[in-house]
Amino acid sequence: xxxxxxxxxxxxxxxxxxxxxxxxxxxxxxxxxxxxxxxxxxxxxxxxxxxxxxxxxxxxxxxxxxxxxxxxxxxxxxxxxxxxxxxxxxxxxxxxxxxxxxxxxxxxxxxxxxxxxxxxxxxxxxxxxxxxxxxxxxxxxxxxxxxxxxxxxxxxxxxxxxxxxxxxxxxxxxxxxxxxxxxxxxxxxxxxxxxxxxxxxxxxxxxxxxxxxxxxxxxxxxxxxxxxxxxxxxxxxxxxxxxxxxxxxxxxxxxxxxxxxxxxxxxxxxxxxxxxxxxxxxxxxxxxxxxxxxxxxxxxxxxxxxxxxxxxxxxxxxxxxxxxxxxxxxxxxxxxxxxxxxxxxxxxxxxxxxxxxxxxxxxxxxxxxxxxxxxxxxxxxxxxxxxxxxxxxxxxxxxxxx
Length: 402
Fold this sequence. Notes:
Strand order of the largest sheet: 1-2-9-6-5-3-4
Order of helices and strands: EEHEHHEHEHEEEEHHHHHHHH
Structural class: alpha/beta
Oligomer: single chain
Helix content: 40-55%
Distance between the termini: 28 Å
Strand content: 5-15%
């Protein structure tokens, strides 16, 4: 297990013990939205929906979760749910419009996003379309869409089944929109789910490759948000705490899919990563959004491959900040904290069942590097990257990662 933090600094929930006490009851937080966290917290869903006056929710999920039986675990708790499964791995505007139509035709009064970031983001966008009919491109963050979003959203519960995106505590949704020709971010505090139910038991049995990809997504959120140029000490502290949980839980969760302590640590790390990136992200996400713009590649896997390359790219501009981060996680005591931080990321990747190079990922084409770089230049995440980016910079970075 990779543990860069000083001994004893990891989260208690992630430290195995032969005489560990019985699991604690779920905890309730209210930051930035209402969060019910802990093993068995799914059982709180009916009460949370009653609190929101939701009697007939639209359950937005994907066919894989229906096939796994996880969707039934949620549906069985509800009296009159409506199931909507037409959500792609990278949701599109057509998915969102179809979900909104199902909501209205079925007389629903609330939305549940069940799954990874894709169903949860789709559920957020469905709420937006219901409140503000019209093209989603109108709410592109690059077009000032945030200023036109009003707080009249239908209630929503988010139930993550992976420990990665942090979308359950994020204020945005990523949707593939023909009107922009790319994976587009819609951002607003009004898009925060009304409640997030974070039950790590729902991630037990997640295959190693998905555990690794989603876990590296959470790790990237914490690292990129800490290094972003926005001044936000609150998110900095949250990112550091997220790293503590992720470093403790990631490797064990990947190699022992039934380990409750590791799954709990990763669920919390992902949640904290999702909160921390309210501060903004960086070039890793700008590029992964561009590379995933056609919906064929797993977002977290792209982040994992790009992360060390992006840290090297940013090092000159972010040397003091990287040194500080390395020191805070117990690295660089003999000097060269940034170098040790990059090495740590490479060591973690070496233990993950993931591709190491972009060229090993199906669905990407090297001769489209310039097109990917052009799309990344349009991505809002680029704006908070420590080092200013040109298209030529991004093409070179992609070439090195290929």
